[in-house]
Amino acid sequence: MRMAARIRDIRIPLLLAGALVAAGLAASGVVGTARADGEAFVIPPPVVDEAAKSGPETAVLAGGCFWGVQGVFQHVKGVSRAVSGYSGGDASTAQYSVVGSGRTGHAEAVAVTFDPKVISYGEILQIYFSVAHDPTQLNRQGPDTGTQYRSAIFAKDAAQRKVAEAYVAQLDKTGAYPAKIVTEIAPLKGFYPAEAYHQDFLTLNPTYPYIVYNDLPKIENLRKLFPDRYRDKPVLVSDAKS
Fold first, then answer.
1. What is the largest CA-CA distance in the chain?
2. Of 22, 55, 66, 70, which has the maximum CB count within 10 A?
């Protein structure tokens, strides 16, 4: 969704309307049971994974609107930081108003910093392919369309690329998805943090209708499918700054 559709609704009257939507969806059993585009995908862990490393590692992942992807990984144990931003284009065009044109090469992405002694890169990808988004949707995700919403893994080195490519090949053979995985695997050329109002958006706006329908179910699916990986208190960008 574009700026006018996504940000202007933060105004108080529409947040109140969002609360009513949230209550109605919760009563009907929609919230926390399925993603807007279907159930979470139950998939095996990667056969090929990185060896345990010392020190933090970062995975840059795109899977539609970064609000939900960031929110998911903020609830994952071993993740110390998840920042919404842009990757795939130049620094000069890494602004929301420009990226929304779909002509910058950027995708809305999230830089996930994690401790590989707690959770591996492959396990980060398992969550990404299972609950964070639908990797079979080409240049779109749920209600959002355009190349800026594409499924993409931006690998920072050959080791990450090897794990990602092997996992996509493995998952395509499982039959867990309704169609072939279309996730782009590209070298990481740069990551540019998004504007402050995009950070921690899911946590700060839990009754916003877009979040209620598209993203809160992802958090619940994370809790149900990965109980050993889930943490209730998210790690927020704002907490790190404070």
1. 51
2. 70
Q: Report yes or no: 225 and 131 within 8 Å, Cβ to Cβ.
A: yes
Catalytic residue (choose from 59, 61, 62, 65):
65
Residue 2 among the catalytic residues? no
Share of the chain above pLDDT 90, in %: 81
Return the C-alpha torsion angle 73, 75, 77, 81, nearest 10. Answer: 50
Q: How confident is the model at residue 37 (pLDDT cuts 50, 70, 90)?
A: very low
**Rounded Cα–Cα distance for residues 105 and 184 (Å):** 12
The pLDDT mean for the chain works out to: 87
Burial 166-178 (b: 16+ CB within 10 A, else e): ebbeebeeeeeee
As a whole number, mean pLDDT of residues 70-88 equals 98
Q: E strands along 47-124, which residues?
A: 57-63, 79-87, 107-114
> Distance of CA 242 to CAs 38, 148, 207, Å?
37, 30, 25
